[in-house]
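Closing statement on the adenosine-5'-diphosphate sub-project.
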Amino acid sequence: MATGKEIVVSGIRSTGFLHLGNYFGAIRNYIRMQEDYNCYFFVADWHSLTTHPDPKDLRGNVFRLLAENIASGLDPEKVALYAQSDVPEIAELYLLLNMLAYKGELEKVPTFKDKVRLQPQNVNAGLLTYPVLMSADILVHRAIKVPVGKDQEQHLEMARNFAQRFNTRYGEELFPEPIAFNFGDNLVRIPSLDGTGKMSKSENEMATLYLNDTDELIRKKVMKAKTDSGPAEPGAPMPETISNLFLLMQSVSAPDAVDNFRLAYENQSIRYGDMKKQLAEDMVAFIAPIREKAQALQQDVPYLRRILKDGAEKARASAAQTLQAARALIGINYYQ
Ligand code: ADP
Ligand code: TRP
């Protein structure tokens, strides 16, 4: 893919069903970038191994993620869509970068500290070096922009550090410093429906809307979303549970509908039941077509395999060039 376009990389772990947070934090940006950038999008299957998934589930998760990406609007003709484990150059760069990554800085990463708290019985080296593997994913294509949600900002900062450290040590600007990217000013964080955190693949399924949810389940989850007990005092800041509902509504509903409810909130005549009914229907209209298309695509395994193979070929062509340059700079190029 030798074009003059800027290079973009992003990945999603194959750990479960895609949800609205993945869509608005990552995939929506992928779709908008695919025309104007040189894009490498992948299923982060190696990253999912930190929690030892059942081998029987892994392959289904990878194929479903591919199907859901395509159903959301990603065009495999325009981008390289591949599985991380099909690109061995990523593992090689991970090894090289590990020599420049320090235990102390890795132990300080907030996502690592969270995992230690949540799964103290499984603090493996893969978990500790997760940001190094992620940096290898990005730097292997010498990417500039990385479309991700807000939760990944810290990891991007580490990728910049490793890039800089490598460049300084080996005396050449091999790696540009990548930035977290979102169209619009701010990175996105889609809140969970119970107001306790972000929507996520593995935690609290009833508070997360998945692209695979049935219409009934979507309605049920939205109607159960937390709202406050009554109208707030005039001029008081909007409670988080309510601003979360507005944020979700802004994502999927017509601007008129959002404006009407905002006005009703301001003059304290809002009925949260009505707002949630509207949100539920708009959510169904948004999710159902993606769900149906993804389910159909998942039936066509030969097609999905072809996509993976083509994607890996494009990704390896780019990765091989980077590794050749990296090896030469380090001095492990014995046959040249
Ligand atoms: P999860 O956190 O649900 O397991 P991943 O870690 O695989 O999902 O994240 C894939 C992408 O989706 C990343 O770019 C991440 O920033 C984004 N993402 C995940 N959850 C959210 C959310 N609730 N809001 C916005 N973006 C999100
Ligand atoms: N760490 C990311 C997450 O948990 C997934 C990921 C792995 C990624 N490698 C990446 C995202 C490279 C962007 C670029 O969401």
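Residues 24 and 188 are 7 Å apart (CA to CA). With this model delivered, the sub-project is considered complete and its resources will be redirected to Aim 3.
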